Amino acid sequence: MRGFRHALRRITMTDIQSGPKDRFFIRAVFFVQPLLLGAWFPRIAELQQKLDLGPADLSWALIGMPIGLLISLIFAGRLADRVGAKPLLLVSLLGFFVAMPFVPTAQSQWGLFYFLMMGGVFMAAVELAMNVMADRIERYGDRLIMAGCHGFWSLGVLAGGAVSTIFAHQGIGPFASLLTIALVMVVPALYAATGLRELPAIETKAKTRHPSTRPGWPVFAVCLFTGGIALAEGAMADWAAVYLTDVFNASPAAAGSGYLIFAFAIAFGRFNGDWIRQRFDTVRAARLFVLTALIGLALLVFAGNRSVASLGFGLVGLGLSSGFPLGVSVVSGRPGRSSAANVGLLSQIALAGFLISPPLIGLVAESHGLRVGLATVAIALCISLVMTRELRDRPAQTALKT
């Protein structure tokens, strides 16, 4: 054992290299994981009508997922450090595919709350594990992949939403839609996760001898930036279809188009995000993205017809596309704590923002309408805009010494 630890101490980034196989499997995981989430978003309006829920009642039901997420992320970072990111990914990915098809079977507001909470528990662990593994593959490799991985995540959301919308056109209900996708994709998802290597953890050269368990401002500032972006993304994801239905009286199938445009724009932006990171200063690129999102939000809120609203959804998607990938890349290299701990905190704040914003907007919409509800997203985006000055390229890294 002592000989093994001595050998591990001598590991550097040049001793281990990630390759095309690692990149293929992590991209596959990022694609298949959100298929069920994407399939759920366009059907929210249907379930709202089925359960006869107003905006406020729907909001309280939707808050179940962020509660499950927060419960999970209290332990997920420690589990990733203790048992490894890959085992955590395998177990939580299977749990997510089992839990999500039950969401549309809810018969009441609190039934919906419970099923979403269970989905949130597994989703949080999956998100943390696959982001930690993607960061290690990127650092042990010869190219940037983080934004591209999240591009595949967005593509998965888009694909799930497209399939679910097609099912809606065919009169297939939400439960049958999600169950079909889960049964078809669970084996490919687990195969991709099994193919990943558990690369050694990484720390910065600036890491202290006795790392702190508390995040400092350099970490928390990045989390605030990412949290504002994620809050806006969650608002668009959950309320896009409802917004087009309530404001422009769109049919269920047409209402799904707003979300699909938003998801496609996010995917497009993320697939080009690594190219932007290679050519532009991180802070300036982040500011450009946030300003684009603010312009799109203004178009969306003041839209007089569905076409202008769709353009707004597209610009918001482009603006939000690279926020989370940038945050993961920056925070994982901040000194003082392990990358899993930093990514865990970032994921907790980002996913909480992603999942808490829809119910909060619903509460505002109950009193002032959805236009005003979505307009409140500008507050979060302005916070992100201020925090962009805290984004700096991470220092050089070495493999974690144990």
TrEMBL record:
Domain of life: Bacteria
PROSITE patterns (UniProt xref): MFS
A Pfam family matched in the record: MFS_1
Any one GO molecular function term: transmembrane transporter activity
Cellular compartments annotated: Membrane
Keyword vocabulary terms for this entry: Membrane, Plasmid, Transmembrane, Transmembrane helix
Record domain Major facilitator superfamily (MFS) profile: where: 1-392
Protein topology in the membrane: Multi-pass membrane protein
Any one GO CC term of the record: membrane
SUPFAM superfamilies: MFS general substrate transporter (SSF103473)
InterPro entries given in the database record: MFS, MFS_dom, MFS_trans_sf, MFS_Transporter
Stretches that traverse the bilayer: 24-42, 58-76, 88-106, 112-132, 144-169, 175-196, 217-241, 253-273, 285-303, 309-331, 343-364, 370-388
UniProt name for this protein: MFS transporter
